[in-house]
Amino acid sequence: MAPNNTPEEKYDYEYFNVTFPAEYVAHVEINRPDKLNAFVEVMWLNLSKIFTRLSTSPSVRAIILTGAGDRAFTAGLDVKAASQGLLTQQGGAELDGARKANNLRRHIIEFQDCITAVEKCEKPVVCVYHGVSYGLAVDLGLACDIRVAASDTTFAVKEVDIGIAADVGTLSRLPKLISSNSFVKEICLTARLFSANEALTHGLVSSLKPSKQEAVQEGLKIAKLIAEKSPVAVLGTKHILNYSRDHGVDEGLKYTAVWNSGMLQSRDVGDAVLSGLEKRKPVFSKL
Amino acid sequence: MAPNNTPEEKYDYEYFNVTFPAEYVAHVEINRPDKLNAFVEVMWLNLSKIFTRLSTSPSVRAIILTGAGDRAFTAGLDVKAASQGLLTQQGGAELDGARKANNLRRHIIEFQDCITAVEKCEKPVVCVYHGVSYGLAVDLGLACDIRVAASDTTFAVKEVDIGIAADVGTLSRLPKLISSNSFVKEICLTARLFSANEALTHGLVSSLKPSKQEAVQEGLKIAKLIAEKSPVAVLGTKHILNYSRDHGVDEGLKYTAVWNSGMLQSRDVGDAVLSGLEKRKPVFSKL
Amino acid sequence: MAPNNTPEEKYDYEYFNVTFPAEYVAHVEINRPDKLNAFVEVMWLNLSKIFTRLSTSPSVRAIILTGAGDRAFTAGLDVKAASQGLLTQQGGAELDGARKANNLRRHIIEFQDCITAVEKCEKPVVCVYHGVSYGLAVDLGLACDIRVAASDTTFAVKEVDIGIAADVGTLSRLPKLISSNSFVKEICLTARLFSANEALTHGLVSSLKPSKQEAVQEGLKIAKLIAEKSPVAVLGTKHILNYSRDHGVDEGLKYTAVWNSGMLQSRDVGDAVLSGLEKRKPVFSKL
Amino acid sequence: MAPNNTPEEKYDYEYFNVTFPAEYVAHVEINRPDKLNAFVEVMWLNLSKIFTRLSTSPSVRAIILTGAGDRAFTAGLDVKAASQGLLTQQGGAELDGARKANNLRRHIIEFQDCITAVEKCEKPVVCVYHGVSYGLAVDLGLACDIRVAASDTTFAVKEVDIGIAADVGTLSRLPKLISSNSFVKEICLTARLFSANEALTHGLVSSLKPSKQEAVQEGLKIAKLIAEKSPVAVLGTKHILNYSRDHGVDEGLKYTAVWNSGMLQSRDVGDAVLSGLEKRKPVFSKL
Amino acid sequence: MAPNNTPEEKYDYEYFNVTFPAEYVAHVEINRPDKLNAFVEVMWLNLSKIFTRLSTSPSVRAIILTGAGDRAFTAGLDVKAASQGLLTQQGGAELDGARKANNLRRHIIEFQDCITAVEKCEKPVVCVYHGVSYGLAVDLGLACDIRVAASDTTFAVKEVDIGIAADVGTLSRLPKLISSNSFVKEICLTARLFSANEALTHGLVSSLKPSKQEAVQEGLKIAKLIAEKSPVAVLGTKHILNYSRDHGVDEGLKYTAVWNSGMLQSRDVGDAVLSGLEKRKPVFSKL
Amino acid sequence: MAPNNTPEEKYDYEYFNVTFPAEYVAHVEINRPDKLNAFVEVMWLNLSKIFTRLSTSPSVRAIILTGAGDRAFTAGLDVKAASQGLLTQQGGAELDGARKANNLRRHIIEFQDCITAVEKCEKPVVCVYHGVSYGLAVDLGLACDIRVAASDTTFAVKEVDIGIAADVGTLSRLPKLISSNSFVKEICLTARLFSANEALTHGLVSSLKPSKQEAVQEGLKIAKLIAEKSPVAVLGTKHILNYSRDHGVDEGLKYTAVWNSGMLQSRDVGDAVLSGLEKRKPVFSKL
Lengths: 287, 287, 287, 287, 287, 287
Fold this sequence. Notes:
The structure is a homohexamer of 287-residue chains. Helix content of chain A is 49%, strand content 15%. The first copy, chain A, is an alpha/beta fold and 287 residues long. Chain A has two domains: 3-227, 2-enoyl-CoA Hydratase, Chain A, domain 1 (Alpha-Beta Complex); 231-277, Lyase 2-enoyl-coa Hydratase, Chain  A, domain 2, CATH 1.10.12.10. Chains in contact: A-B, A-C, A-D, A-E, A-F, B-C, B-D, B-E, B-F, C-D, C-E, C-F, D-E, D-F, E-F.
């Protein structure tokens, strides 16, 4: 491992492995394979902590997110834990509907914020899907920037099957991130399984690989490529693309101009141009 | 027909057949086949009435919309009626440009509201295209949630051919619902015909079937599948997906949290989990 | 050349050829082929002047934009000129960071406005890509309405390679104009080349032709087709589609109603209907 | 009464008097004085019907809204009826929280739409307050355009006193329509009474008169003055001011330009200028 | 002190006193009087922690915020600490402008989030101004809900005097919260002192009292009054008023309907109505 | 006059005097007093040119705008010229309603852009009203930042009197810039005159002076005060206040953070702090 991305302190979080497979690249692995990587509460809390740290770590410029084991990226919420949690979150039976509603709202927002921590992470995140990728798998991948998949991946937006309108991101992000609203509505309203090929066709993932191993390699390759670029340019590009997704073009342009008024005062431009003339890879200083 | 979706009163509206082919499923058929199902004013008024009723009918959880006859879903506006209507709507020749403009605005908004009644219908609507599907056919399908087509379907956004910028929904919804703005601009600016295959490629429809009959069966299959799910979850999913289409992700997430603060207090969650454990289909109470 | 689109005065702008190959059709050619049509500052200033004039010229109803020579639509910014410009734009070394930021913001907005002049041009613009199409090539094409490409086109969003988050339109428009956010993020964050086929798959272009010549013919064909339609309807269709891209559906519908309250008072509707009955092409008066 | 504003058919709605005290002026009086004009459901349904009719009546150019009797404009919701209604609206005790929530949402939106009918009425509405003006009195007045008050008026935003966050308009409109957010929060969170003088100071009303009679005369005077102006200009002014309240300045300007592109083609401009030269009141044709 | 608002654990935060002067009322006092309550970094971090805890404490329904000592609510940032902080936040001299910009952005957002914690606190906050109230005093008060002042208060938006555009809330909130944009611009662009009377006239505060002591009593009186109301209704009222400040009326109404669909299922409505009939104060259960 | 604000070239524009009465202060005087400073087209074109130049002139940090002569700031549009202009702008009688609408829209936007040039001017503008201040006087003042008035000023929003909904800014800006929507609606719908005192009460102006001369002195005093402050801070403060007027608080905060990430890298902060310690006025370098 290159000194450049030896983190100052160990990343030690239950149900996650965090490693540094290449210079400036972090690898976050969901690690509860005996339960198909299904999520219990501590997991989304840890996920949020990990990505919040990586966001400002100068040793990290790109991240991949994968699931441990052969069978699943994640099967989604641990249903048993979730249905108990739903009751707990509402509070006791003595509460009226309004008080239950308020408790639920607080908990949903807390849960959403954990997933959104991945989107807010300043560094790009490449999600690598394989195997069972249901429910929260989709929420989580949509909060990442780039999605690739093994061809054995099966996806589903499962929530209507358990009586819930998905609320940690799928319904908010899907209509913005992939093509064909007709397809979006179909998979969300029927909860049917869909294949890696369908995911590719409709743009949920941008490439397929024959196996999990190759998909992870592809994810790593993309992350390494990003990590070689100017960290100032990469951070700005992620930030502005997310801003533009949610604003009109005029707003996007003005915001970009203000953003770049500070960000163009970067040595990276000179470093990049010079190394281009000298036919070598540029070396950018830490962010 | 199951007692569960025998509507309380008959749906008796000129130019439309409304039937109930399966439990909780309604079938609305545009019925003016001798004129290629072209629309005259009474038709969009009736369309609005039908979908407004279905929206809150406890006997209905999913709807399919089709066109009668072999030749056309609909050829769009009845041009002869429409060009007369345009004159009528402006008012007499003695009016000045401003007064004509005000009359036209009132009429356009009234017309738009009729088509938007399909979008506002709380229950998902599956549109099944076949044959000639021009002009209003596209406006109408875009107000539905899921679109499937027979492979003989030919589409066109015809309005520039008659000197009009389409104003009952196509121009507002197309840039949000399908991929490739370049394709959207091309079909809207040239009024050229495009095929079912192009519609599939660009995500206007999410599946093709070889014949009208098979397309209708597919639409019915999807509607039945939706009708088996928790009606609370389905209604919320449609509602939030439409909200998210028009808002940024942060707004979407907050709205979802508020929505679900009430909607998670549903017996459907328990019913779904229990039936899952018991390996049987859940039965959800009426909405 | 038909008298109808002989412009009143010559279009004489350095690095651009402007011709009128068909009735109501203008052809703007970027003309610096020895430098792969790379842009220096005078070029975007001229581009803006040309499209601002074409916008209100009654002799023009559709425009195609191409690059001279066999090798490139445009290789993007002239890097040498650009890196000098960046220094100039910041102002001298005696300035503090804030004053440099203010200078940069002014210059970025001025540059953006030049590219946006293509989007604001009232008449539709068809962009024909071929060969090297990097950086500004993408910004520029996205400000056009319809994009077609020769199959030899190679695209790249190059900015992260020179330490910059793209700021003249790509990051603001891409998330709105093409499908698959995963693909958008990948090409913007890695700066990798992508092929004409990928551009087609993801909807950046709506058709491919085997050669530059055929692609230009296709662009011309589309422009001619548009130029035959009602200019009132075409102008409104472009305007409303752009508005709708940036607003929710409700806003889009209301705006359309107000727009059409004036625009339906057009003789084009009658002209179109009459010529339809008489089985001949309609002739529309100038706009 | 001038022939110009004899309505075609009588306005006959329970709990309301509708008269036409001057040319082009309508007077809507809430008429349940023995109950302090407190609202039961039929009243807001009728209110909506009345204003929807007045909106497009060519005999009406301005409207005043008052309450019958000496004691109250309106005491707000009829609490007894409202608390029964709240139970009814939720549906029976056998319903779960989600189903109750859905029923409540439908009913709130229906109720809101009735009040918003006053805002959507194309013609300006002058609200004249006197005496007890609680709860719905504020919701209703805020949906009007101009508010005047008798000096004996006492206002209150009462909802927190009965366990409810006000939901038919006060909380949505107050932060936009009057000054001092601190005052807005105070009256809404404490439900305290506030005087006509406070209402004047904070801009809720724009003038005070010593008695109900004089306040009604003032309202009528304003309505008559408006009714003498160009109906095209008045309708546009109300419409654009409401639009601008909810949009940024850039959006407001563009919308105004599109609106006026149709609306300046009015004979009223010539009529107004000519009558100005001839030193007489202009006579504008009906809208 | 009533058992109802004995907090579970002590609130022990440097530079702040937190007490519970009445049932369900918390009192937060800024406590660095020897430095005119000027803020150093630990103070805004503590402020955020305090209000985040109070937000969900069932023992608290309303809060007052005051400054210790006779001379100042707060003189704003501790300038010495702040100018050192500014250098620290940028990072070392070896950083380029872009890296400094990124560091500054992270720090500003962190600082803003601390102040916004007061706005996000679910319970209403009454700010009581006295004496010197400069810079951060205004930012902070604007994040509260209701503002009252002693008549000796002097205000200033000081930032242009130290070369900064205010960035922790004043510039974002002032144009929305008080009347007269001309006054807002004047005080922000000139940094001139303005009096308690001007603050009252322009709605920055909603009442004045002759002394600090009386102003605190007034603040406490308002907080007690709020604490007696239904906590469900109060929380909803604050939440929706803040939402409405930032959204158009249509959006506000729809959001309110969804919010209340859960929140009207409250026992508080029945409790309030019943106690009204029984002429006694209602007792509401904890939130 | 100090060398610091001797402009490089003379400002020589018909109907305007541009002088430099104090260091870094420009004075723009509308100069057509024999016609009550009524505007003809060349005037708004010149106005735009002047403010666009002042916007980036390093010799200017604040501007006052006044009207020549004793009788009027401006009586608004020159009605005779305007009514001829309206006809010209529509184009000849042979045009249909749609073509006229398009011509009108182009002209309105061009006119609006000229007035908005004052708002877009990077430097603050103080408007000094006196005497007749009708129609365009209000549009123009609202595009300025601070408004003061002589007590003899009479205002009117005159447009409904000539059959027009005001379209160069009053209707878009008034609902955002002053308190009391009821007052806004009243003056816009009735076109009645209102006094300087009413303008003060409702926040249209922030101070009154007994005579034109004293009002101009007050405007000059404010402008000088602003011109002494950090030009980086002043420019940012104007820019962000305008942004915040049109966006929600969350958006405003994020934008401010990005803006200040560049703008806090300013020597002005150090210059201001140092001069504070040394008890002297800071001298800031040019922008």
